[in-house]
Design brief:
Elements lengths: L2 H25 L8 E5 L6 H8 L12 H8 L5 E9 L3 E8 L4 E5 L2 E5 L5 E5 L8 E5 L14 H13 L2 H4 L2 E7 L4 E6 L4 E5 L4 H21 L4 E5 L7 E4 L1
Parallel strand pairs: 1-3, 4-7, 7-8, 10-11
Antiparallel strand pairs: 2-3, 4-5, 5-6, 8-9, 9-10, 11-12
Helix pairs in contact: 2-3
Length: 245
């Protein structure tokens, strides 16, 4: 290799190194300092709370932001299911969140736990929240309930599967879903007080169809004055077992 060629390679290397330094200095210059932060998807959680959790600040360099770490910090909020933090060059950060939906309410000691469909505890309330929510009770309460964590996840999932099979117009006649931890079975109570022994998750579609027949039966018995249903047992194959009061 000639001295001229070696010198040429050295000069190119120096220029390349200088170019890298210039690019680095430019990327971390004030030109890329964050001046706009937008938050979308939040209805229940205040924008100020999302910004606090994100740890994104105006005036900081956009490339110093750890998108994934910021998103995970936001997701620590019990009501936020997912968060996405993206850069919009040169100076904007967009935060998009998906909030958890209130689905069920469960009495717990002296408060009401507000749960989403995954059994995540969103809130603890002194009074029953306004709205049409699934009421869940259990005879074996969890020892500890932490906001943002699942409450009796397998039991809640079992009830949710049954709940989703029942048409909305039929669910309006139901007052409560109860989980019997001893038998690992579900009991459903109607607004008129009839106990529906649903049992386990076997034959779910068949049993969900039978539930819709309970409410017309309650009305007919009440109008005829022939008595009231105490319970209907759907746990076994064949015709349901009825007991009158």
């Amino acid at each position: 290799m000639t001295k001229h060629r070696s010198r040429r390679i050295f000069q190119i290397s120096i220029l390349f190194f200088i170019a890298l330094i210039c690019i680095f200095l430019f990327l971390y210059s004030s030109f890329f300092n964050i001046d706009t932060i937008t938050v979308s998807g939040n209805e229940k959680v205040a924008e100020s709370e999302v910004l606090r959790l994100s740890d994104v600040e105006k005036g900081s360099n956009i490339f110093k932001l750890d998108n994934r770490l910021s998103a995970r910090s936001i997701e620590a909020h019990p009501i936020i299911k997912t968060a996405q933090v993206t850069r919009q060059l040169p100076r904007e950060i967009k935060i998009s969140i998906v909030e958890r939906e209130m689905w069920a309410v469960m009495p717990y000691n002296e408060v009401f736990l507000v749960l989403d469909p995954e059994g995540i505890c969103l809130d603890k309330m002194v009074n029953f929240p306004a709205g049409d929510y699934c009421l869940i009770t259990m005879d074996n309460w969890p020892e500890q309930v932490i906001l943002g964590h699942a409450v009796a996840s397998s039991e809640i999932e079992m009830i949710r599967k049954v709940y989703e099979l029942i048409p909305e117009e039929v669910r309006q006649n139901i007052s409560e879903f109860h989980y019997d931890s001893t038998k690992e079975e579900i009991l459903i109570y109607t607004l008129k007080g009839t106990e529906i022994k649903f049992g386990s998750l076997d034959r779910m579609e068949e049993k969900a169809e039978l539930i819709s027949q309970v409410f017309p039966m309650e009305i007919d018995l009440e109008e005829d004055g022939t008595g009231k249903l105490e319970y209907i047992d759907l746990r076994f194959t064949g015709q349901p077992v009825l007991k009158m009061k």
